[in-house]
Design brief:
The longest helix is centred in the first third of the chain and has 24 residues. α9 packs across α10. The strands form 4 sheets. Strands 13-12-1-5-3-17-18 form a 7-stranded antiparallel β-sheet. A 6-stranded parallel β-sheet has the order 7-6-11-10-9-8. By secondary structure, it is of the alpha/beta class. It contains 14 helices and 18 strands. Bound molecules: zinc ion. Zinc ion (ZN) binds next to loops.
């Protein structure tokens, strides 16, 4: 049974809220189809985020293909702030009214996941961060979640199809099931070493039966140089103080000559809990907090009709653009009609929004995943969580 919408249904407006179809009926009867400018912006970010990452553009732009519509936008993977108009659409209203629902759906979820991924990557500093959240969301969107997590700076993904689409090797160790069936952590590790190709890292779970520290030492003594790392995925009911468990394991491994054995941690982690584990861990698997990241709640609002300034309560009318000072980084939202603004520091400011579609034709190419991801990574050092 397939319930999820297919690509064609999305492009034909079949996932759209009914009130946009009613809007079309009303305006057609009234013979009204004005030239309209709309802005996409987020008034407020979730969880007191100070910034967010804008993604979902390449996927959503297809909605507007061949529709006589002009679109300008921040480049995908850009940092943006509350109240900034990240995307502007201009055209006959009936040519795009029904795409508001899917457009927002694409960018709200994509930007939410990418933003969370970037936050986790910043919190982990230079440590490895992997996306382990496939099991928490509908499988039809597994590659979607992992694409936006990867763009946000995550180093790898566990799901096979996601990895294939991103041209990565899927990352993972062994589940508790193997250890339970074989009956012992060390025996399971030896079986893993025997069965799995030699280039694949030997990273073994240590929390199935016994104490994390004791199991880690048993493994290290038995597998010696073959053991690359251990993974701690202790259930929440047994955690007490997870950073202390990880620290004790780390110190004990170091003291017994196993400083080369890394420690990976997974299970209920987010950008806050990562920070406490950093001194003792070399990487993290992030699940639910990433795949179920809070969405960035963009809205789409009319700001001009037939060139006249119009807007609803709570929204400033007129087409605006985002400028940034290339010396001090200060940003400014200003009306397009004004000349290039000058920064308080005396420097000129650069326009950040770019034309991405003209009369339904793409301006330039759809950007590759790594181009978008590198844009995110270049901005990392200016951000914090
Ligand atoms: Zn400046």
């Amino acid at each position: 049974m397939q319930i999820h919408a297919n690509h064609k249904e999305i492009l034909n407006g079949k996932t759209t809220d009914i009130y946009f179809h009613r809007t079309e009926e009303i305006l057609k009867k009234e013979k009204k189809n004005p030239d309209v400018t709309v802005e996409v912006w987020a008034k407020r970010f979730p969880d007191n985020y100070k910034w967010a990452i804008f993604t979902g553009l390449s996927e959503s732009i297809e909605l507007f293909k061949d529709k006589k519509i002009d679109i300008a936008s921040l480049p995908e993977g850009s940092v943006f702030f509350e109240r900034e108009p990240v995307l502007t659409i201009k055209g006959k209203y009936l040519d795009f009214a029904k795409f508001e629902t899917p457009l927002l759906g694409y960018i709200c979820q994509a930007s939410g996941i990418s933003t969370k991924a970037t936050r986790c990557k910043i919190a982990a500093q230079n440590r490895t961060v992997l996306s382990f959240g496939a099991r928490r969301m509908h499988p039809a969107i597994t590659p979607v979640i992992d694409r936006y997590a990867y763009i946000g700076g995550i180093d790898g993904v566990s799901a096979v199809l996601s990895a294939k689409k991103l041209n990565l090797k899927p990352q993972g160790t062994i589940p508790h099931a193997v250890i339970l069936i074989i009956g012992d952590t060390v025996k399971a590790a030896l079986a893993y070493d025997k069965a799995v190709a030699s280039g694949i890292p030997r990273i073994i779970l240590v929390d199935t039966f016994g104490d994390e520290k004791i199991e880690s030492l048993r493994l290290a003594e038995k597998l010696k140089d073959k053991l690359d790392a251990i993974r701690i995925d202790t259930p929440s009911s047994r955690r007490g103080d997870l950073p202390t468990i990880v620290r004790e394991t780390r110190e004990e491994l170091n003291n017994r000559g196993f400083a080369d054995v890394g420690i990976f941690v997974s299970g209920g982690l987010d950008e806050y809990s990562i920070k406490d584990l950093n001194p003792y861990s070399e990487g993290y698997g992030i699940g639910t907090s990433l795949s179920n990241a809070p969405t960035i709640n963009f809205s789409l609002d009319i700001v001009e009709i037939e060139g006249k300034l119009v807007s609803k309560k709570g929204k400033v009318s007129g087409r605006k653009e985002i400028f940034e000072c290339n010396r001090c980084g200060k940003r400014n939202i200003t009306f397009t009609k004004n000349t290039k603004p000058r920064c308080d520091c005396g420097n000129e400011m650069n326009l950040l929004t770019k034309k991405v579609m003209e009369k339904g034709k793409l301006v330039g190419e759809i950007e590759a995943v790594d181009v978008i991801r590198n844009r995110v990574l270049r901005q990392l050092r200016f951000l914090n969580v």
